[in-house]
Structure formats: structure tokens, C-alpha cells
Design a protein that fits this description.
The chain has one domain (about 70-335): Beta-lactamase. About 40% of the residues lie in helices and about 15% in strands. It has helices spanning about 10-35, 40-50, 55-65, 115-125, 165-170, 175-185, 190-205, 225-235, 240-245, 270-275, 325-335; strands at about 70-75, 90-95, 100-105, 135, 160, 250-255, 265, 280-290, 295-305, 305-315. The longest helix has 25 residues, at about 10-35. About 40% of the residues are buried.
Length: about 350
Amino acid sequence: MVRKVRKKKPGIRKFAALLMIAFVFIFKSLFASENQTPGNQRQIEKIDIESKDQDNYEQEISRQIETLPPIKEVNVPSNASQGNLYSSNAILIRLKDNTVLMEKNSDEKIYPASLTKMMTAIVAIENLPDLNEKIELTWSMFEGLYQANASMAGFQAGEKVSAIDLLYGVMLPSGAESCIALADYIAGSEQNFVKLMNQKAKELGMKNTHFENTTGLHHDKHYTTVKDLVVLLSYALKNDTFWQIFTSPSYFVSPTNKHPEGITFYSTLYEKLGNQNILGGEILGGKTGYTDKAGLCLATLAKVYEEDYILITAGAKGNHYSEQHNITDAITVYNSIRKK
């Protein structure tokens, strides 16, 4: 018996072809969707920028250069929980990539006290043509400082001091007269210098910061956040001169007309830190701060298990004569970092 071969109907072939076309269309749509990543979006934005007029384009490029990369946030288990800290505000970042490892009320406005002087120092460094230039302190530079119980480096009216010595005077003993001397020399007045500080804050993207003075003496309109301060410090540490000053435990001021034997400055951080250590590393440098309204504040740089970290804390209860809860918090936080 011969078996008849059944011919395939034309309708079936058409249906199969349509099905294949539909499959290809769906596959292309999915592929296009998956490739619409943030990177592609940035490429589109770049094209848009390039289509702008030249002035706007240059302003945009300038902004990108001056603004630090945004702080990244990750959830990392830490023994330094909010409940374990005396400070009302804190933030810890890994310096190499600005990754946030711990934070507590980091966007809340605070009074920075002498942490202000980190901005004073970096703005001065960037505007001084010669760090060895001699600057003479005048009586007017001391006006109101003693009455306000401001921290002083120990310079005197009529003393001629090099700019670099004044910078160490700003950061190590937290000298208010050093701040005023640099401000007057660079900008003609403290008020004009403060404008440069606020301009730098804007350039760095410190959106919740406003300065009224160079010293950190209390003013209701002189405020910032610990998140803004960590942006400031991570920027300032890129400057070799600032890094050297920030990490110096002491410094000898060359003889002057008022101090023929010179002066030795000691960092207020190292005086308060004493012999306390952290696990797997050390605190490399820092800046302390205190006013009645600000509480005990601290900015530190530390190396832990071969990585650099920045910690900013503020609002710890106490004063210069009480237990230094800002130091205690720094030890607690750095000891919470785990080895990889």
C-alpha cells in the first residue's frame, strides 16, 4: 500500500512566519529597554550639553570640575550605632571613594565651632601666592577676641609672622588671631574673606552651610552639617600643604621679633587623644571644636587596616574640662571598622 503524503497547508506556514516576526520584535524591545542604563542617560545628557551655546557649556564643565563626586551611601553593620554615640551628629566615610559607612543626623544643621577653621585654612592656602610671606599682626586683629574667650595661638600685636606659621596657628592651637591676620592680609578684612569661604562652600556643593566669620565663634547664622563638613575635609586633604598641617602633632614657629626663641604649637587633638589607640591603625590628624551652643566637635582622619577614613562628629555634651566625649566617639567609631 502506498502511503499518501499530506501536503502542509499554506495557512500554517503564514502563521509560523508571523510568530517569528513577533518574537524578533519583542526581543529587540527588551534589549533596548535593558540598555537604557544610567550610563546611557549620562551619554544623552552629554549630547544635550554639547548642543548648548559655548558659554553655558564652559560653565557646566567648570561646575563638574569644582564639585566633588557625590557621597555614596551603603548599609554596613557597625558597632558604632547611633545609641552608642555621645555626639548628636556624625558621619564616617571611606576617603578613597566617599562611601558613607555610618551616619547619624548627618543632614541636620549644626554650629561648627572651630571646625570652621578647616575652611579658613584651605581658602587661605589657595589664595596665598607665597607661604613664606611675612604678615604683621596689628592691634585691630585682636579686637573682641579675648572678650569672646576665643582660642589663641599666642602671637602678639606688632609681630611679623610668615603665612605658613599663621596657618599652623589656625589649625594646631586653633588660634583666632591667626585666622584674622590671614583674612585681613588676603582679602582686606574678615568680612571680605568670609565671602571667599561662602563662595568655596557653594563650589563644593555644601548646600546647607553658611559662614559669618573665620573663627567659628557662635553666630546664629553661622551653620553647616556634618555631611557638608566631610565634603569640605575630603576636598581640603587633596592639598599637600593642608594635609601636612592637619596631620602634624606639633610645629615649631621660627623666631620672630616678639618671640626670639620661637614658639612650639601642639595640636589640640593630640593633647586630648593622649595614648588612646584604635584597632588596626591610628588617627593621623584632626581638628577639635567647642562652643556652648555647638558642644564638643571633632574632625579626624584615620588609617584603619590600610584604608583612610574621615569622621566628623558634633553636638557631644561637655566642655574643655569635662570628659572628651568627641574623642570617645572617635575611638568607638574607628574600632567598629572591620578588617576585610
